[in-house]
Amino acid sequence: MTTKSESFIFATYNVLHGYHKDLLIKNIRFLIAEKHADLLFFQEAETNFERPLNDLLRDCGGGAWRVEYAHSDNGGDLAIAWNAARLTLRDKEIIPLSPLPGPTLIQRLKGRHNASERLAFTAKFLIAGKSIWATNTHLAWEGGVGHRLAQIAFLRKTLARSSPDCDILAGDFNTLGMKFFQRPQERKIESILGPQFKNVLPDLPWSQDISCTAPQDRWETIAKLCRFFHIKLRSRFDYIFTRNLEVVSADMLDLPGSDHRPLIGTFTY
Q: Burial level of 22, CB count in 10 A (0-12/13-18/19+)?
């Protein structure tokens, strides 16, 4: 006798510091009401975005939605939201990732005097009797490929201490570089995570462009030049990795409001 598989829908979204609030709230409402998401990750979900997000979630799903935040002093803001009618939160853990000793040259030129603090944020859920560890992260662009890979290796080692039935690891991995260099970075990340973790959208060409900006990032001059010359400055930054989950479907949604696009997938367990 075979057991019928259950499914749920998950999305991850870097919300650009919550700067374009109206568009972002519209997009998140779409993910919940139209795409029927059960679990949502947000990166750059800074404190100014908490109130509009909380208000939206309070209105959705008959009040069943819940959200938890993980903030740092220097840019590691994360949020996990879920439909409590489907997922039961059992525990949560904030995992600081290894920082650089100080700000990079680019950061100094932009006025930053401290190295960015990066986090991973794990929510430990039960769904239909199975345990799912859902880990949201935003890796450093500072320090180059080696630093990002070290953060992934540390995170993989930390997650290996537990043995849930299933894992989701997703977020903004900041795989900077021209397309020619991005796939080798992805392969190194896949190698560190091991064959148990599946890269859900391995052939996605991009998930970030510079069409939207926020003042604190100080990219508006570059964005204006790209718009003037009709240049699409795009990169693949966002990822979903899963363990012991079957992928029914997955896609990127080309929605305005952030320099990133949300990734969404349907999974069975």
A: exposed
Question: What CA dihedral angle connects 264, 81, 72 and 141, to 10 degrees?
Answer: 0
Strand stretches in 64-172, DSSP E: 65-70, 78-83, 88-96, 119-127, 130-138, 166-172
Nearest-angstrom CA–CA distance, 182 and 175:
6
Other beta carbons less than 10 A from residue 192's beta carbon: 17
Global confidence as pTM: 0.91
- The Cβ of residue 101 has, within 10 Å, a number of other Cβ atoms equal to 6
Residues whose CB falls within 8 Å of the CB of residue 44, separated by 6 or more in sequence, listed in order: 14, 15, 16, 17, 18, 75, 77, 138, 172
pLDDT by 10-residue block (mean), the chain, 269 residues: 75 97 97 98 95 95 93 84 97 91 52 72 96 96 91 96 96 85 90 98 94 83 78 91 98 96 97
Helix ranges (H only) for 35-174 are 47-59, 105-109, 144-159
Query: What values do phi and psi take at 88, rounded to 5?
Result: -110, 120
Of 58, 56, 52, nearest in space to 29 by CA: 56
Largest separation between any pair of C-alpha atoms in the chain: 64
The highest-level CATH class for domain 8-268 is alpha beta
Cβ atoms of residues 42 and 79 within 8 Å: yes
Alpha helix (H) residue ranges in 34-143 = 47-59, 105-109
